[in-house]
Amino acid sequence: xxxxxxxxxxxxxxxxxxxxxxxxxxxxxxxxxxxxxxxxxxxxxxxxxxxxxxxxxxxxxxxxxxxxxxxxxxxxxxxxxxxxxxxxxxxxxxx
Amino acid sequence: xxxxxxxxxxxxxxxxxxxxxxxxxxxxxxxxxxxxxxxxxxxxxxxxxxxxxxxxxxxxxxxxxxxxxxxxxxxxxxxxxxxxxxxxxxxxxxxxxxxxxxxxxxxxxxxxxxxxxxxxxxxxxxxxxxxxxxxxxxxxxxxxxxxxxxxxxxxxxxxxxxxxxxxxxxxxxxxxxxxxxxxxxxxxxxxxxxxxxxxxxxxxxxxxxxxxxxxxxxxxxxxxxxxxxxxxxxxxxxxxxxxxxxxxxxxxxxxxxxxxxxxxxxxxxxxxxxxxxxxxxxxxxxxxxxxxxxxxxxxxxxxxxxxxxxxxxxxxxxxxxxxxxxxxxxxxxxxxxxxxxxxxxxxxxxxxxxxxxxxxxxxxxxxxxxxxxxxxxxxxxxxxxxxxxxxxxxxxxxxxxxxxxxxxxxxxxxxxxxxxxxxxxxxxxxxxxxxxxxxxxxxxxxxxxxxxxxxxxxxxxxxxxxxxxxxxxxxxxxxxxxxx
Lengths: 95, 484
Fold this sequence. Notes:
The complex is a heterodimer. By secondary structure, chain A is an all-alpha fold. Chain A has a domain at 5-43: Histone, subunit A, CATH 1.10.20. Helices cover 36% and strands 0% of the residues of chain A. The longest helix of chain A has 18 residues, at 21-38. Chain A is flat and about 55 Å long. Chain A starts with a helix and ends in a 17-residue tail after the last helix. The model of chain A has no long low-confidence stretch (mean pLDDT 89). By secondary structure, chain B is α/β, with parallel strands linked by helices. Chain B has a single domain (16-484), classed as Amidase signature (AS) enzymes. Chain B has 15 helices and eleven strands. Chain B has helices at 9-17, 23-35, 48-60, 103-110, 153-160, 177-183, 217-227, 271-286, 302-317, 335-346, 349-362, 368-388, 414-418, 425-430, 459-473; strands at 43-46, 72-76, 114-119, 167-171, 186-189, 209-214, 257-261, 290-294, 394-398, 434-441, 447-454. At the A-B interface, helix 1, helix 2 and helix 3 of A face helix 9, helix 10, helix 11, helix 12 and helix 13 of B.
């Protein structure tokens, strides 16, 4: 199946990545050649095959629900692109 | 006497233990060489001043019981290092300072090693040539304007150029073994679950595994011993008894059964690769092992399945980069606009391509056709190996379909780039361990590697086979320091 420009725009919206018109055309081409390669899988009959969801196939470990505070609020906030001592700052979301 | 940087890791440790060289002298020797090797662009972040301080501290109060006593080591910039910038080769993490340390690097420092710096890699480990890094191409010390392979390209380059005595990388589809093959070095992708993923920037969580890259097999066994640990912070870490891999290393493989899978003789495989493979088969026969022809019938479906599973997981893992709490942020008219511009400008083309593939295969209406299908194929590939291991102890294949190529040669054709990983990807899908060792050179004089694939948790066995083959092959990495 072919991935058209409309599909590229739709999935880039879902992925929250803005794509310029010019780049979208090239991307559609790239994606089509990749999917052409992927479609090889359709040659295989997998109706009766169980999907492999985890290679480790171990049970998840449980742990106590305890808070481990390292008091690193300041260091964490320092990584924020919009520096603020107390909060993460984002563009206004409420009118 | 050979100089400090020429020693293997094990030789260097012995010299340090005998007090013939100090940690400071060692660290200085490496820093000197790193400073003269900027042209390779193998480092993203240097940590030389701190390294010297730590070396001093070690010499003042040495503990020679440690497995890596005062040894300086540079690591791939995908491992989070506390208080030192960790970029994953991406603009979006250009200024990210982790507040925690990855378990694997922590294991190195606990065993006495000293951080030398952070090594270049493909952006979020997505690439096979180190050309997707925001911090630029890396040169392969083998020859000018050759790619070092990827994604652990900076690691392979620094190791082969003797800028670090050993290093660590990560391998999602071949990212340790392919660059090891391209640079004439040894690289191990361990069994899934043996090295903790905690603190490693995530790409595809069901495939990612950290592993050592070293100058020889002995060094590799030691590094793996140090890196591997059970870790409660990684829910897929597996609790099994870790061994003393170096002490138990043997150079005999008499009576071992080694499988040769016919499906790895792919269309258009070069004569040189085939000859290398035959040479490897001859060596293991001479060493007393039995060679058994085997079939892994679903091999040709591994790469297409990988290009569904890996991007799907990546699109989910990389959703966290939104410019809010850390990393690069672009200005936007509103919150959504800010997200979209941040991700558009912060990610490079290959990463965006893979996020979009992943988003598409997981999107409504396509899940069964792609992701579920790929997981079923993954089961078939694992079954192939399970079946083969009823009759053999390990499997021998080439590591890569070619030697190192020129920078820029494959950047315009994603599929031809992906084909680099044709021999390595099935192993990640099946969660198995595999090692690449240098086994010869091609007509151009560039190194070529052979891959030994083991049963899950059978690293000791593949180390023994690799060690035996290494002795027979006696590969010498002829690198002229052209960049200095």
